[in-house]
Amino acid sequence: MTIEIRPITQGEAVEYMRVMPWVSGFPQEEPEPVAWYTGRTAFPPLVQPTAERLEQAAAGLLTDWFRPQAAFVDGKLAGGSAIVSVDITLPGGRQVPMGGLTWSGVLPTYRRRGLLRQMMGALLDDCRERGEFLAGLHASEGTIYGRYGFGTATFQHRWEVRRTDAAFRTPFTDPGTLDLVDGATAAAIWPVLHEQVRAQRVGEISPLPGRWDGLAAGALPADGSGPAHHLVHRNAAGQVDGAAIFKVPWAPDPADAGVLAVASIEALTVDAYRALWGLLLDFDLTKRVVAARRPVDEPLRWMLANPRALKLARTRDNLWLNILDVQRALEARTYAATDALALEADGRAHIWSSDSA
């Protein structure tokens, strides 16, 4: 058996995509409800791309920011992964380049042969060569990536809030305005707002190219969850300081009906945050609000008259990090006070050498 690990060529792009779980139809997540999904099933509906869609995606696959590696066994493409070039906000607010690991998959008939381990070594070497001293990922399974030097850095929550019991603790008069806008307007607002928010949020990463393109199109999602609605908050000066994307999906089961699903919400000020949630928690003809991908330090629970109205439905790891250069990582973060700090790095750790990855 001959194993080769290398970047793919354009002519291999379609075959490379076919080994990915989201294309091949194999499981992509642990068989448990995930915190980032607002539905009630363990797995979100899988919509496999057509051959035509694969060809279109493969045509634009190889870019400066998408850096794939593939595993070939006796000449056959058997697994793949990739690094995407992103920035991450460190404690203190500095933003630095990070290699984002994504699209990892090995065909079931080639598992347990060390293919992912060898691809991981090539990917992390690529990060080092480009000067990225951090590598990060969102893990599909909690037992895989620790062996390659990754550890959990942030967590996320999934909330469920009873609408009829979600009154706020103190009265609030919004100095700004709320507005429902169309997808084209939202597509222009979100890139600017997100850049402002992520500069303030430790662990936030920059969006990949095209992340907001689908908002303007306004296409109905294939999973039948209904159209997206776009809510925008402007301050007293008319400047956008918050936005939310939500759906009110139809459900055949009365137990799941009347749910308002919050896909995204970001705010620059407490006033905007309070105003957005004030409306989302008080839509007529709804009984429950579900919000996924919420940071663990959000203050909504403590704004409610009854904190128990907000149920923490799921918690899971969010961002996993691998520190490829400890000294540079520590030098890049900043602190609110000037003082002395001594740290000792465990020399036995295996995360800095691809030979032991």
UniProtKB/TrEMBL annotation:
<dbReference type="InterPro" id="IPR016181">
    <property type="entry name" value="Acyl_CoA_acyltransferase"/>
</dbReference>
<dbReference type="Pfam" id="PF17668">
    <property type="entry name" value="Acetyltransf_17"/>
</dbReference>
<protein>
    <recommendedName>
        <fullName>N-acetyltransferase domain-containing protein</fullName>
    </recommendedName>
</protein>
<dbReference type="InterPro" id="IPR041380">
    <property type="entry name" value="Acetyltransf_17"/>
</dbReference>
<dbReference type="InterPro" id="IPR051554">
    <property type="entry name" value="Acetyltransferase_Eis"/>
</dbReference>
<dbReference type="Pfam" id="PF13527">
    <property type="entry name" value="Acetyltransf_9"/>
</dbReference>
<dbReference type="InterPro" id="IPR000182">
    <property type="entry name" value="GNAT_dom"/>
</dbReference>
<feature type="domain" description="N-acetyltransferase">
    <location>
        <begin position="3"/>
        <end position="175"/>
    </location>
</feature>
